[in-house]
What we know:
Layout: H1 8-20, E1 28-30, E2 39-42, E3 48-51, H2 58-71
Parallel strand pairs: 1-3
Antiparallel strand pairs: 2-3
Helix pairs in contact: 1-2
Amino acid sequence: xxEELIGMEDMEAIFEVTDALGxxxxxxxxxxxxxxxxxxxxxxxxxxxxxxxxxxxxxxFCRKLRIDLEAMGFEPADNVLGYDDDDDEEExxxxxxxxxxxx
Length: 103
């Protein structure tokens, strides 16, 4: 059986979740081949490593991804791009974004 590779739709589904949690895309490593049962882990250097499963849709896996990332302490970002959208301020500055909760 040939290895199944992830596609652009898979990456878009993953980034939809990680962007919403304020996780910078350069902090996410995604294995290019799918492996069952799939995995989500935060490694010592702070990176989030993700392997999608072969026998489960990216949509279903990404629901689990969000739950697991929130359990790791990531919280929803107010603004996906990390910028303050308040028009009343004189200048918009990049925000530091949400910080993972340490437990």
